[in-house]
Amino acid sequence: MSVKIQTLSGYFHEYQKSVIEPETFWDRIAETFHWKKRWNKTVEWNFEEPSIKWFLDGKLNITENMLDRYLFTAGDRTAIIWEPNEPDEPSRHISYRELYHMVCQFSHVLKDLGVGKGDRVIIYMPMVPEAAIAMMACARIGAVHSVVFAGFSSQALADRINDCSAKLVLTSDGNFRGAKKIGVKEVVDEALKQCVSVEKVVVYRRTGQDIKMVKDRDLWWHDAIKGKPTEIEAEEMDSEDMLYILYTSGSTGKPKGVVHTIGGYMVYTHFSFINVFQYNKGDIYWCSADIGWVTGHSYIVYGPLLAGATTVMFEGIPTYPHAGRFWEVIDKYKVNQFYTAPTAIRALEAFGQDPLLPFDLRSLKVLGTVGEPINEEAWHWYHDHVGKNKCPIVDTWWQTETGGILISPIASITPTKPSYATMPLPGIQPIIVDNEGNVLRGNSVEGNLCMKYPWPGMFRTTYGDHKRMHDTYFSQFPGLYFTGDGVKRDEDGYYRILGRVDDVINVSGHRMGTAEVENAINEHPRVVESAVVGYPHEIKGQGIYAFVIADMTDRTVANLTNEIKITVNQIIGPIAKPDKVQIVPGLPKTRSGKIMRRILRKIASGDYDNFGDTSTLLDPGVVEKIIETAKEG
Ligand code: PRX
């Protein structure tokens, strides 16, 4: 048995042990997994280069710990329950034994297509079990998967394929999302016009819509698996071999490929899953994220399946065909732990309590939230109306880079406080520094959230550009991992995440770099310059506000703003589409040419007064002009 915290004093006890003797602490947890060869050294690290290694020289295959491990003891247990977009379509229940065979079978497909250890495979698929099967099949043969959210545009997909020189793309004909049927394969076809590394495309039939199959390149999933054996030896992998790459946005440049390696990620996702959610054998667990994001990786696929859990995978959206869809699914499968994002909670809260009335939700024991700060009102609504005042809320703070949850209550054990992520998990050593890097000790402090010691699940590099990892996360406060988040530690020592302090905005729990959106806007031929900021948005948490200088000849404001939105949609995808575009005569720049974003943030949030010191502005008059047009709406 791994370390499972049972009491608050048990938490403090384990926490102390994890700080005083981290190696002994993590050894004990790692020993509960199946290794082909034990590690020689638990951890080797420095945050200067940075270089982080866990369970050195250990040999294993993560899928043996997710599948083979449960084959004989729990082969009939349901591993994945799949709930389709349409409530009338039959759901799927896949047992651990069936999952094992499906993964083995698809591993053969990968091998026969020439994919080997270390090769990169792109997964651009809807929420169907085959997407999870594809991830595990890659891990089984030692290939590196990179899942790309199926809402990204062909350009965004092409950028990711090219960055990691993927050999293979796994996709589907289309995708059902609410009342819409969306073409997926056509996006891949468009992307591949720019990608030379891709040799084959495997297409899973989901919607049955007409698509073009390219001769000698494309093959159907169902044809590919025909006759393939349902057993395959798991490749022996090193602890520090790559498991996957996941692209995420930062404050500069194109999205970067966050790299996770096998051993540490396995240990950490399992440990955090069973503890935070207090998962017990037989529980039905549901995380409503998409597998295109890290939450889907760690807490739909890896964490739960490593724990032998039953994990629900939902294809649809919370409001289709009605605003009680989430609650219907919870009752249908008697879900015990439910994990979603504040943006979904706020969207459902807007429908009032009526959609909840037909459902009893009595099975629920734990409610989780992730992705962005949860406001108190949404917290209370979730707690009172969904959890009926009896379910603890685990407000889990973490990031793509951290691999797993770092700061969170432990369900039913840590006393919660609305909008607080509360305390670090064992093994996690947060530290708060001011902008000059001075450590802020004690309670009642506010500053930049950093980590001073590694944990097994953290990322190891940014794919193809290790320097970028150093510069982005380890250079601002030397010797520390800087998360990019602001945080407050209150008088009780509880952590409250205040949001990003860099140029990253969080839209419906999705990370967006303002520079990335600006680059997309600037692709419009009429655009001269743009500046993008976040502003408070009732449902999305933050909305995207773009200030744009543009050549207006032959254009109305309405035409141009619309075209700009379409451009961003095409270049990145609908999630990056600005909520507001304001055409402006100029941007507030300092004499050295730097845009004063704090002024734009204030204007975007509707606050037109008290801009503080504006003496360094090249043309203070421009602020007045921007405010004037902003007021006109
Ligand atoms: O700002 C924090 C916010 O989401 C960022 C990480 O985004 P991403 O890598 O896409 O991963 C999201 C899912 C793990 C963080 O830097 N964030 C995440 N969880 C919380 C949060 N902000 C406040 N409270 C949270 N619970």
Cα distance, first to last residue? 60 Å
CATH architecture of the domain at 96-235: 3-Layer(aba) Sandwich
Quote the average pLDDT.
Answer: 96
Uncertain runs: none
**What is the percentage of strand-forming residues?**
15-25%
Which small-molecule species are bound to the chains here? adenosine-5'-monophosphate-propyl ester
Give me the CATH fold name of the domain at 96-235.
Answer: Rossmann fold
How would you characterize the largest beta sheet?
A: 7 strands, mixed
Kindly describe this structure.
The longest helix is centred in the N-terminal third of the chain and has 17 residues. It is built from 18 helices and 30 strands. Among the domains are: 140 residues, 3-Layer(aba) Sandwich (Rossmann fold); 129 residues, 2-Layer Sandwich (GMP Synthetase, Chain A, domain 3). It is of the alpha/beta class and 633 residues long. The mean pLDDT is 96. It starts with 7 loop residues before the first helix and ends with a helix. Adenosine-5'-monophosphate-propyl ester (PRX) binds next to α10, β20, β24 and β25.
Which descriptors apply to this entry?
binds adenosine-5'-monophosphate-propyl ester; GMP Synthetase, Chain A, domain 3; alpha/beta; single chain; globular; 633 residues; 7-stranded mixed sheet; 18 helices; 5-stranded parallel sheet
Sum this structure up briefly.
With 633 residues, this protein is an alpha/beta fold.
